[in-house]
Each structure stands twice: as C-alpha cells, then as structure tokens.
Amino acid sequence: MIVIMKVGATRDQVQAVVDRVSELGFSPHPLFGEERTVIAVIGDERPVDESVFRIMSGVDRIVRILKPFKLASRDFHPDDTVVPINGCSIGGNQVIIMAGPCSVESKEQLLETAWAVKEAGVDILRGGAFKPRSSPYSFQGLGERGLEILAEVKEETGLAIITEVMAPEQVSLVGKYADILQIGTRNMQNYNLLHAVGEYGKPVLLKRGMMSTIDELLMSAEYILSHGNYRVILCERGIRTFETKTRNTLDISAVPVLKQNTHLPIVIDPSHACGNWEWVEPLAMGSVAAGADGLLVEVHPHPDMALSDGAQSLRPDKFAALVKKVRAVAAAVGRTV
Ligand code: PEP
Ligand code: MN
C-alpha cells in the first residue's frame, strides 16, 4: 500500500509514518514529491489493517496497489524516472543511444568502435567482458581483462560504459568499471543477482527474459527497487515466438504498455531482437516512434571477424546512417537524440 501524506505535512509527521512502517516489519520507501510525500509500504501487507496509518497525523489517505509490483508502478510514482549517466539522462526528452560491440575482443577493436560511435553522436559505449553464451564452447569473453580495456577506452574517449554482470559475486568487480550494470535476458529472474545489484546501487539496465511477460519483467525490476536502487532502466530485446525468420520477435507493444504501467525508462535492443544487421535500422526507427527512451545497438568494425553476434552487428558507417534516421524519427515525435 502507499500512504499519501497531506499537502504541507511536516517532516516529523512523515518520519513518524516511516518509523511506524518499520515497527510493523515492513520496509518504508518515501518519495518526496514537489507537492506532497508518499510512502510505499513494502512487504506482505495483506494482514495489515490500513487504519493504523490512516489515523496518524499528516496522513491524507491510503491506497492499496493491487499489482504485484509496487515501487515500479506508476501508481506509486506518477512522473517518469530519469536516470542521469555521466552528463546525459535516460528517461528524459532525449533518446539515448548506447552502442558498441557484443564482446570486448581487444583494445584495438574496442577503441576503433568507440571512436566511431562517438563520432556518430553516442555517449555510452556497450561491450561485454563476461558473456552469457548459449553454448559453453562459444567465446566466453575476456573477463577482467575486458573490464580493464573498457576502463582504458573510457579514459581515452570519455564515453560512459555499460557492461554485463552475470553473477552476484561479480557485482563489485564489474561495478568498479561500469557506469551501467547490464543484466542479460538469461538472468532476468536470477533473484540473487537482482538483490545484489539492488544493494550495490549503480544504475542497472534490466533486459527482458526471452520468455518472460511484461509483468514478470516489472517484478524483476521490483526486486532491484525494493533493495533500495531506483536507478533501473528496462530493456526489451525480443522474445521467443514461433517465428524463426528473426532471432527473436521484437515486442514493440511493450513500449506503450510499459509506459502506462511503470515510470522506469524503456530502452530497445533491436540487434538481439532480429539477429540480422539489415533489419536493425527499421526496428530502431520503429522503437523510437513508439516512444522508447533509448536504444542499445551492436556495432563492430569488422562484423565478419566478430567473436560473437557478428551477423547482427552494424559496421560504423551503417550505424552512423542509423543514427541520422533515428534522429529524424525522434524529431517527428518531439524528442531529440
Ligand atoms: C548482449 O547484450 O550482448 C546480450 C548477451 O544480450 P541478451 O542478454 O539480450 O541476449
Ligand atoms: Mn550480443
């Protein structure tokens, strides 16, 4: 449930409610709005009689959120969440494009890609050091050396870094290098990992599980939020359907549905959605037209030599062309890139 304080409720009145929530064994999540404060009561609230809060001074009313996700829901937080990353903001008017190779393969490869995507207008570089590959015989990533390369390239180019973390015990290591921690599709329901990044506190990009519903994605986001980390960005990257012409099926309807249900920013990864570089640009354009707050795009200077996901990786010149087209679509829907 959420406790909605009266306009003008004092700090002491808010604190008294927060203390009472804790005393009753729940975790309080206050949200200080411009007009009024609301306090989410997180835990299994079914046995609680809401009048314990209603009678407290400064309380206006109590609203029960019936959805299984609370902190992630628009009922709790009507305004869009904006996540600042190194000078840019994800979830604001600007559509943020994150781009780079699937995997960090070498310093040369990453640096060449980084300068190319920066030149095209990108502020955030992607690149996996720990790779969740479907086959144990595929390239598994450079591990810690990959993180060091990301740091060196960040230092030289000024680009912020998004990279994947696969296990709870890796969070503090990857967190030292990443500006955004990526949780991959295969780990969307790794609750120990969600707990760990929730406590760690750095911004998280949470990818939708390839066989997960929108509500399941939001419940996974709720795990992160309920551990105190509100800087969560959702990512639709295609779901598995009967269609085999594309690697996955981009669920573009997830964008308006998520926008209605949650305040969290929504990014689309058209590369993993379709699996073929030729279709990445139209999907990127469609995503921005539908209201996505950002894109995550795989770019490789030599896709034919890529150690992972070469078929869906754009060459830098094709990526620059994509950015131009996306910019035009963004302008048409009143946004910038
Ligand atoms: C990736 O971003 O390279 C990746 C492995 O993505 P996903 O988890 O969506 O498959
Ligand atoms: Mn990939």
Mean of residue pLDDT?
97
The top level CATH class name of the largest domain: Alpha Beta
What's the β-strand tally?
14
Whole-number count of domains: 2
- Number of H/I helices: 11
Explain how this protein is built.
This protein has 337 residues and is an alpha/beta fold. The chain has 2 domains: 2-63, Alpha-Beta Plaits (2-Layer Sandwich); 83-332, TIM Barrel. The chain has helices at residues 11-23, 51-54, 107-119, 144-157, 171-177, 191-200, 214-226, 254-261, 270-274, 277-290, 316-332; strands spanning 2-5, 27-32, 37-42, 59-63, 83-85, 88-90, 96-100, 124-126, 160-164, 180-183, 204-207, 232-236, 266-268, 294-298. The strands form 3 sheets. The protein has an 8-stranded parallel barrel with strand order 7-8-9-10-11-12-13-14, surrounded by 7 helices. Strands 2-3-1-4 form a 4-stranded antiparallel beta sheet. It is elongated, with a radius of gyration of 21 Å. It starts with a strand and ends in a 5-residue tail after the last helix. The structure holds phosphoenolpyruvate and manganese (II) ion. The site of manganese (II) ion (MN) has 5 residues, from loops.
